[in-house]
Design goal:
Length: 322
């Protein structure tokens, strides 16, 4: 059983006992597929957890009376409220999803408008997706839905100039911040994955595509370091240790304060920029300088848009060329 399994179980234990006030240790052990000792150890750990600050009334109050568990914690039963930062992240993530899907999503738009209004987020704060290949999503979705072949001008990794390909697209997938199209490459005669930000041109053909295989289950493309990759070194504060689990680092060093130092290699600095920005001030970029400067510029631009939404929304936006 992994640490993630243990964390998921402990996160579920408190609401499980709150819904079952008379539940016993043995019943919990049976429900979660572990032994009594594990449940007791989990409850002991949970007793040291709670709201930030961990002051009086902030911790979970858990007692084991006989063989029964009593949980007393009033703030769990109160309606959850988003902080301003959480609301902004939710809105920006929702805007990014809507923009990437390129579809009319009235339910999502309505929900985002409600969050904006409740949190006081200016209407001018919007997501502008980087030119990372997402503008190829609509024609690829059309080709997949209509079972049609596409002609690509595609630059392979390490290549200097795009080369022509004919591909039967079967599925789209996002992994590590990049979009991929999975399908049959007619040049090699094999199943291949094509990163959308390496596509220089795309035409949907009238030629029917070969049917999608029944056993197609696209695995996330495995990243293989290349000679031109850039070394990235980050220091993570204890509250953003999770970043190391999302970037496939080469080296992870545990620090005395509970944080981490990570070293990785990547050819996608724009993706790293988004990771660093999403983690907030808990990430320090040691190198490269261009990533540090890019994060600083993006953060300043976001702050400018937030503090002066009317001016930001009136500026012309760059549109990708197809």
């Amino acid at each position: 059983m992994t640490a993630a399994d243990d964390a998921a179980r402990m996160l579920t234990l408190v609401p499980w006992f709150l819904e079952r006030p008379a539940a016993t240790i043995d019943e919990a052990a049976q429900a979660f597929g572990v032994d009594r000792r594990t449940i007791l150890a989990d409850l002991d750990t949970i007793g040291y957890c709670g709201l930030p600050g961990l002051g009086g009334g902030d911790l979970f109050d858990i007692d084991v009376v006989g063989d029964r568990v009593v949980v007393r914690v009033a703030w769990v039963e109160e309606p959850l409220r988003l902080t301003a930062r959480e609301a902004l992240r939710l809105v920006l993530a929702g805007e990014a999803v809507a923009a990437a899907l390129g579809e009319d999503l009235p339910a999502l738009r309505s929900a985002l408008d409600e969050v904006r209004a409740a949190a006081g987020i200016p209407e001018g704060v919007r997501v502008q997706l980087a030119e990372d290949g997402t503008h190829w999503l609509p024609p690829l979705r059309t080709a997949i839905a209509d079972h049609r072949r596409v002609r690509l001008r595609y630059r392979s990794r390490g290549g200097t100039a795009p080369s022509p390909r004919q591909v039967d697209p079967w599925a789209l997938q996002v992994s590590d911040g990049s979009w991929y199209a999975h399908g049959l490459d007619h040049r090699s005669g094999e199943r291949r994955s094509f990163r959308l930000d390496r596509i220089a041109g795309l035409d949907v053909l009238d030629t029917p595509a070969t049917p999608r295989p029944a056993d197609l289950d696209p695995a996330p493309p495995r990243y293989e370091p290349g000679p031109g990759d850039i070394a990235v070194e980050l220091v993570l504060a204890p509250d953003v240790r999770w970043v190391a689990d999302n970037v496939r680092p080469d080296i992870v060093e545990e620090l005395a304060d509970g944080g981490r130092r990570v070293l990785l290699h990547t050819d996608a600095l724009r993706w790293m920029q988004r990771i660093v920005l999403s983690a907030g001030p808990g990430v320090t970029v040691l190198r490269p300088r261009e990533l540090r400067d890019a994060v600083r510029r993006a953060a300043s631009a976001a702050l400018e848009r937030y503090t002066h939404p009317d001016e930001a929304s009136s500026r012309p936006r760059r549109k990708p060329t197809t």
